[in-house]
Amino acid sequence: MTMRQAILFTLIALLPGIASARPAAEATHGADLYRAACAMCHGPTLEGNFQTPALTGRFVANWAGAPVAELESYVHRAMPLMAPGTLSPEDTRAIVAFLLQANGLAQGGTIRRVHPS
Amino acid sequence: MFAGGAALGAVAMMAGERTLLPHSATAGDALVPPHRPRLAPLHPRVDQITDLKVCIRPFRAAGPRLDVERIGDKTIFHNYGHGGSGWSLSWGSANLVVGNVAATLHRKVAVIGCGIVGLTSALTAQRAGFDVTIYTRDLLPHTRSVRANGSWTPDSRIALTQTAGPAFADQWEQMARFSWATYRTYLGLPGAPIMFEDNYILSDKPFDDRPAPPPPAGAPGTMPRATEDFATYESRIRDIVPAVEDIPDAENPFAAPHARRHSLMIYNFGAYGHLLLSEFHQAGGRIVIREFHTPHDLASLPEKAIINCPGYAAREWWRDDSLIPVRGQTAWLPPRPEAPYGLDYRGAALLSKTDGVMIQAVDLDGLGEMTGVGNSFEHPDPAEAARAIGVFADLFARMPMVGG
């Protein structure tokens, strides 16, 4: 392996990391926001309860195949239920990034599993 | 006389009863009023709570949305926004909407939502000969409908008088009469899905029977400003709904100086909900669990006629900002079948139902019909429940009894 090849290899190996650094940070921020704005009803582990839907399981089935932007739009206009529309677009994106990450879903584009089975 | 009174008490004890005496009576009274209510006392306590449920009444100033809208090749028949009257008006509202659907000559109908309005719409459509599929994200027990108190309240925050106008009053009467008649067909059935019970309205002050004051000047538009803005139509159906009667002092068993009684129709969610779902399935109805995100998702349905019954979810699902949330909360305690009556006192309500004793803070702070308006906080408030329970705990703590 030449030096040039080694640098190229390292760059390629790092690329996904660079590409996912922003979403990962966003999801971490989203987790904080979730605890503050959503967990009271949906539960600390997204488990929901008899009255409030879980944000795992059926949540994935309900949104699979939809554009992430559609989920963001829904969260932005409908949540939190007691004060809909109060989350900024940035905070909404961060919360959705967290929800996607927590469910093993790909960031951006269409809602789908990271590793399709 | 004394011996007679003691014997009466002994009989009551032997029967295991704890009977309330009129508050003015003393042990040994020989003359028992012929209609004195014999009520087992309820001593509700916070540590007996089995559930706290929060509902959001879907209020629209103009009354429920019942118009027809076309999206692509679909015809959407709206049926939502019934405020605090969804259960009570469900059958009548479904009857109006299904009548409109029938005129389209379609045979297959989709119903969106499986709350009480969706379910009664589906059943009404089946009874009109339609092949019906319900598309819903949740079945009845998980919907907001079953977070109500479940009693006949057909004009509870159903509309604003001015905004809805006189034509709606006529439509309301038609719906209320049709619903009442349909509910009567569910009386006397095993499990008591629907029943009547005596409801006592108690007051510390004499009842004020003066006409309600006029609403504030000007038009309320889409937001209520005061209790007086809300429509009251119940006098239009007083010929079929049992009247409220005053209870004379000597017959008043409660530790409140003024009491009235009426026969109230109540809906027992467990028995009634299961019965309606069974009827729907027995008639060949199908339920598809599905969540829609935008109205355009409806394009994928095979049915061309769609009855839209999302309740409060219409706000985000149909982007209907005319829906105003009105929060309500009920606390549920274990059933007390030996005490089948209801109470209204100091802004709290109690109903003894087959699935539990329901206690609700209707208006603890003197806000009248404005209580909960604009509040969509769907999380239980234990302090509110404790205050409402406290009203009745205090009432019964003051009540004289025999046999206990």
TrEMBL record, chain A:
Keywords tagged on the record: Heme, Iron, Metal-binding, Signal
Cleavable signal peptide: 1-21
Domain Cytochrome c: 25-103
InterPro entries membership: Cyt_c-like_dom, Cyt_c-like_dom_sf
GO molecular-function term, one example from the UniProt record: metal ion binding
Pfam families referenced in this protein's UniProt entry, alphabetically: Cytochrome_CBB3
SUPFAM superfamilies per record: Cytochrome c
Species per Swiss-Prot/TrEMBL record: Gluconacetobacter takamatsuzukensis
The protein's name in its UniProt record: Cytochrome c
Source organism, top-level taxon: Bacteria
PROSITE patterns documented for this protein: CYTC
Keyword Metal-binding included in the entry's annotation: yes
